[in-house]
Amino acid sequence: MSPTVAGTAAGATLAISALVFGFWGMLLVAVFMAIGAVLGRSAEGRLDLRGAFDALRGKRSSP
């Protein structure tokens, strides 16, 4: 799936959730979509969660 199609699908999902659930429901849907994207990239091996958490905690992975 191309990034354009994925972005369009994400935008449509958020627009529909905003119409149906209101602002806070849409925000919750967006948070769950972001969590799903992170977990999906991690499962594919395209995201190193340990490295990301170390960067957030201020630990450097390179000298």
Describe the protein in words.
Keywords: Membrane, Transmembrane, Transmembrane helix. It comes from Pseudarthrobacter psychrotolerans. The structure is a single chain. The chain has helices at residues 3-44, 49-56. The chain contains two helices and no strands. It is an all-alpha fold and 63 residues long. The longest helix has 42 residues, at 3-44. It is elongated. The model has no long low-confidence stretch (mean pLDDT 86). It has one domain.
Topology, pairings included?
Blueprint: H1 3-44, H2 49-56
Q: What integer is the average pLDDT? A: 86
Series of secondary-structure elements, N-terminal to C-terminal: HH
Residue share in β-strands: under 5%
Q: Which structural class fits the helix and strand makeup?
A: mainly alpha
The helix count comes to: 2
Number of strands: 0
Parts with pLDDT < 50 across at least 5 consecutive residues: none
- Rg over CA atoms, rounded to whole Å, is 15 Å
| End-to-end gap | 37 Å
Assign a percent range to the helix content.
Answer: over 70%
Major β-sheet profile: none
Overall number of structural domains: 1
Keywords: Membrane, Transmembrane, Transmembrane helix
Organism: Pseudarthrobacter psychrotolerans
Protein name: DUF2273 domain-containing protein
Transmembrane segments: 12-40
